[in-house]
Design a protein that fits this description.
Length: about 325
């Protein structure tokens, strides 16, 4: 049945014209996609066949039919292993997204038959503001223990892409941004931009850090700082205006590994407050930049979205708590 709802899933694909046959075939046989992903994961026909409880000839024939239908070579076969071609890697990424969406859709339909159960998928940047969302999750689960929350951590671009593709129900993103495509509820929390550094750094003696202090320092910063600035976002405007004055040593997408680089003396991290462990036992400290630049956060979701019962409870709780 799910294979017939191809129009719902077509938004997943932005593939070059030479791969257009992939779009058609993906919706025709979910079962074969599962076979293909199992082979990619196991790295061999033998291992995949054993996992799937199929004979090797049957599995090989299914994969050959898949390659013939798509007109692309997907696998490089050797005596002992299987590797993906570039076209195979494209199919693997898209197939994973399709099967995630299939599972999400099945769970949503299943939840309609239950007494308010289901799954809610939320994407969020790294921020202390997520505590407000965690409080809502806790409140909901006290009343509806059969609702399960799945949290995806990622940068803004990843979160909005997955919302657009239907893989996430809601996003927790920096605000202000250009969010005209979405419904938006602002959270009360604010984060402040500053520098995370070792406590034995000379700059750690200062209460605030200026641009002049940063000009000679090796900086570690998030990849999202390289985005085109939006008119209302003070930090990205400030960063792009001063990029040529900064010594950028490394970039990162999520915080944990970047904090390790700071501890190891690679550089100073330009980031938000309340992310680093700056307790008495930590080697790190945070100092805000001057003039102060703060960032708000918001819950977003697609306009005209049809909610599952579980998602409807979540957004009604958010609206009751935060909407002015």
């Amino acid at each position: 049945m799910l294979c017939k709802i191809a129009n719902t899933y077509i938004v997943f694909f932005d593939i070059l014209d030479r791969h257009s046959k992939i779009i058609y075939y993906l919706f025709m046989e979910i079962r074969v996609l599962r076979y293909f992903l199992t082979v990619a994961r196991e790295g061999s026909i033998t291992g995949a066949a054993n996992y799937l409880h199929l004979t090797q000839p049957t599995l090989s024939r299914q994969l050959q039919d898949l390659e013939r239908e798509l007109g692309q070579k997907l696998l490089i076969r050797t005596n002992h292993s299987i590797k993906l071609t570039p076209e195979g890697m494209i199919l693997r990424k898209r197939a994973e997204e399709i099967l995630d969406m299939v599972e999400k859709t099945e769970n949503e339909f299943s939840s309609l038959k239950q007494n308010i159960a289901g799954e809610i998928h939320i994407g969020s940047g790294e921020t202390d503001a997520f505590k407000s969302v965690a409080d809502i999750i806790k409140e909901i689960q006290k009343i509806y223990p059969n609702i399960i929350f799945h949290i995806y951590s990622g940068i803004l671009e990843d979160v909005v892409e997955k919302i657009d593709n239907g893989l996430l129900d809601f996003g927790i993103v920096m605000h202000p941004e250009d969010l005209s495509k979405y419904n938006v509820i602002s959270l009360p929390d604010k984060d402040v931009w500053g520098i995370v550094m070792r406590k034995d750094s000379a700059l750690a003696k200062k209460d605030t850090i200026t641009l002049k202090d940063l000009e000679t320092l090796p900086l570690i910063l998030s990849r999202k700082a390289f985005r085109k600035p939006t008119p209302d976002n003070e930090f990205f405007k400030w960063f792009n205006e001063n990029k040529n004055k900064l010594n950028i040593a490394a970039t990162h997408t999520l915080f944990y590994n970047a904090a390790i680089m700071v501890e190891e003396g690679v550089g100073y991290m330009l980031t938000l407050n309340n992310l680093a462990n700056t307790s008495r036992t930590s080697n790190l400290c945070f100092r805000p930049i001057k003039p102060e630049i703060s960032t708000g956060w918001a819950v977003i979701w697609k306009k005209y979205q049809v909610f599952s019962p579980a998602s409807k409870i979540f957004i009604e709780t958010v609206q009751n708590k935060f909407k002015s």
